[in-house]
Amino acid sequence: MADKTPIALTIAGSDSGGGAGIQADLKAISANGAYGASVVTAITAQNTQAVTAVHAVPIEVVTAQIDAVLSDLDVDAIKLGMLFSPDLIDAVADGLKGFQGAIVVDPVMIAKSGDALLQDEAVSALTERILPLATVLTPNLPEAARLLNTSDAVGPEAMETQGMDLLALGPDAVLMKGGHGAGEDCIDILVGSSGLLLQVQGKRVNTRNTHGTGCTYSAAIAAHLAAGKDLTTAVALAHDYLKGAIAAADDLTIGQGHGPVHHFYQVWG
Questions:
Q1: pTM for the full predicted model
Q2: pLDDT in tens, the chain (269 residues)
Q3: For the chain, how big is the Rg over CA atoms in Å?
Q4: Element (H, E) at 199
Q5: Catalytic annotation, residues
Q6: Beta strand 195-203 with 185-192: parallel, antiparallel or unpaired?
Q7: Which of 78, 170, 262, 266 is most buried by a 10 A CB count?
C-alpha cells in the first residue's frame, strides 16, 4: 500500500479570473504538497479589476458536493472561504457535522477590488455557526474588526488583543494577518488559548499583484495540516510560501488590475 495521500478540501467561491477563490486554493494546495478537492459555494464573474456578478449555488447542490467528497475521499483538512449567505453557511455547517480533521476558516468578506463577498446579514451566522468549527481562523485586519464590531488593530499588541478576543467566539486559534497594516514589515500573529503561539514577518513587497493572498495563505495552511504538520509549523511554512509567491508576482502579466500572486513560482516562471 502506498503512503496516505494528504487531501485538503476547499469549500469556497469560484473566481473566473483564476486569482482567488477555489482556483487559488487548488493551486496553493497542490503547490504545498497535498491533493485538492473542492466544493463550489458561489460563482463569481470576476477578474483583476472587479466582481461583476455573484450567483449562489443552490443549497442542495452545495450539500450534494460535500456529501460526494466526504463519502469517498479521506479528507484530512478543510479550508472554508466564501460562504456568502446565511443559508449557505447553515448548509456548510450542517454538512461538516462529524468531520474530525482540521478546519481552516478564512472569513472572506470583501474582494481585493472592494466588492462584497459576504452578505451583511450573514456575519452573525458566520460567527455563530462557522467560527466554533475552526481549528484556526485567518482574518485580515478589516475582517477581524468587522467580526468584533470595532476598528482595525494598529500594531502587534492590538493584533494580539483582537486575536484573543476572537478566540472567545469559538475557534481553537486565530491567525491575525497584518497585510493591511502600515510599516515596512508585514507582521502576522498566531494566538491560541495559551496566548501568543507564533509571530512571523516579512518585508512588504512593492507590487499591486496581491489578488488572492488570503485564499492562498489559508489554503497553504490547510495543505500542511492535511500532511500532518502541527499548526505553528503549518502557518510558518505557508507564510514562507506566500512570501515567495508575492515576491514572484510581477513575473506574471495577468489582467489590468490587481493581478494574482505566482502560486507555482517554485516550478515555473
A1: 0.96
A2: 568 999 999 999 999 999 999 999 999 999 999 999 999 999 999 999 999 999 999 999 999 999 999 999 999 999 999 998 999 999 999 999 999 999 999 998 876 666 667 777 888 899 999 999 999 999 999 999 999 999 999 999 999 999 999 999 999 999 999 987 767 889 999 999 999 999 999 899 989 999 999 999 999 999 999 999 999 999 999 999 999 999 999 999 999 999 999 999 999 97
A3: 17
A4: strand 195-203
A5: 177, 210, 212-215
A6: antiparallel
A7: 78
